[in-house]
Amino acid sequence: MKKFSKAELAKFDGQNGQPAYVAVDGTVYDVSGKDAWKGGKHHGNLAGRDLTDVLWNKSPHKDSVLSGLPVVGKLTDDE
What we know:
Elements: E1 2-4, H1 6-10, E2 21-24, E3 27-30, E4 41-42, E5 45-46, E6 49-50, H2 52-57, E7 71-75
Parallel strand pairs: 1-7, 2-6
Antiparallel strand pairs: 2-3, 3-7, 4-5
């Protein structure tokens, strides 16, 4: 499984033909196929970032939105 540093994850922001990836609890998901993430943005959140805090503390749907998303790797602590 691919390992992503935060800097590598940031490249997958859904812009300029890049896929849109987000990390939650250390797992990196591909949200490119979701209409809600068109252009790498969803309700003020940006792809290419760790959204763990947002998902658990601000999202009304918590982790139910992760079901069925392709897992593309793991987020490391490396910069």
